[in-house]
Amino acid sequence: MLDMNALQRGDVLLQAAVAEAALGETATARGRIDLLLELDDDTLFTLTKVAVTFLMRIHRAEGQEWTALTDAGAGRNEPSAARSYTIGLLNAWSAREGGTVTSLFATASADPQRREEMLRDPFDFAIERALELATKHVGPHTLVRQLCKSIAREDRSMAQDWP
After folding, report:
1. At the N or C end, where does the chain have fewer CB atoms within 10 A?
2. Could you give the CA distance from residue 132 to residue 24 in angstroms, rounded to a whole number?
3. In whole angstroms, how far apart are CA 9 and each of 38, 93, 99, 124?
4. DSSP states along 70-118
5. Which residues contact 16 (CB under 8 A, 6 or more apart)?
6. Cα angle at 158 between 96 and 101, to 5 degrees?
7. Alpha-carbon Rg of the chain, whole angstroms?
């Protein structure tokens, strides 16, 4: 059962993280993600879907175009396992494969050695993209508005398969 108070707390933490990243406050934004990762798995799954929806709103790519992304944070041409997880989520989202998204999240959350790294990456990628867009003169309010649209897309009152 999804805890609506936890979900609202997660929504606000994610909004604050995106706004802070857009203002160049990446350390503060990452601290918000640390707090977000302390939420229960049901809430975290919904917030992961919100982050993926947000990424798709601000970075237009379809299907396999996501596989061309590298892991800038790792400083290498090949994506890390965590970034590969995020790219898998984005590929599944663009293909509208809700079962694959659920499976990817379940696998990542069940891996005790890489759980935090994997579950954190979609949020880190959202922060990276917000910072990148801010350098191109996209205002924090615009990014938060796109995030709010992504939050609204997740109809929490219905038990339907996502997406």
Report:
1. N
2. 10
3. 11, 24, 26, 18
4. -BGGGTBSSPPHHHHHHHHHHHHHHTT-HHHHHHHHHHHHH-TTTHHHH
5. 29, 32
6. 30
7. 15
Determine the Cα–Cα distance for residues 73 and 83; give it in Å rounded to an integer: 10
Share the mean pLDDT of the chain: 85
Contact 2, 156 (CB under 8 A): yes
* C-beta neighbour count of 37 within 10 angstroms: 16
14/52 Cα distance (integer angstroms): 12
What pLDDT digit, counting tens, does each position of 63-110 carry?
A: 444 444 554 555 556 788 999 999 999 999 888 899 999 999 999 999
pTM of the model: 0.84
pLDDT, position 157:
39
Predicted local confidence at residue 161, as pLDDT: 46
- Predicted pLDDT at 1: 66
CB 143 within 8 A of CB 130: yes
Q: From CA 126, how far away is CA 144, in angstroms rounded?
A: 11
- Tokens 């990424």, residue located: 55
Tokens of 6: 């936890």
